[in-house]
Amino acid sequence: MTVSSITKKAQINRGTFYLNYLDKSDLWREIKETILTDISACLKIEPQNPHFFSEASLKEVINYLIKHQKLLFSILNSDLYPEFIADFYKTLVKIFSKYHNQNNGPLKQPYAYEVVFSGIATIFTLWIRREMRESPEELLKIIKAYRENAPTNILSL
What is the pTM (predicted TM-score) of this model? Predict the structure, then answer.
């Protein structure tokens, strides 16, 4: 993608683009930061909740993803996917670790966060890449099953 193709699609001239962004990398950085900041605002940790994100917070994220489906689908089906998923995972860890910085489980850090939050990030991104085939309710059931089951139970081994 070039600056010319971006400005043509946005129906603006190149001068307007360069008044707002240094280059297309600067535009990508701003888009990514906006998405991750917005998702962070949706996710709330409730200290009394034993799970890492409440159902209400997850519903907010799902509604946000639906609202921005075209943009997110484009990002996740491009060469920007690896960078975005890595930053999405880091965002989830950052939010959660503000509230729960200890790990008394059987899997020690950094492995515990890697397993849990890369899985959640993958569920959301796979849903987007599959064009949101499952309803929001079905997606919540998938996340709930992921949170409540060991991998051997998920795979029915």
Answer: 0.84
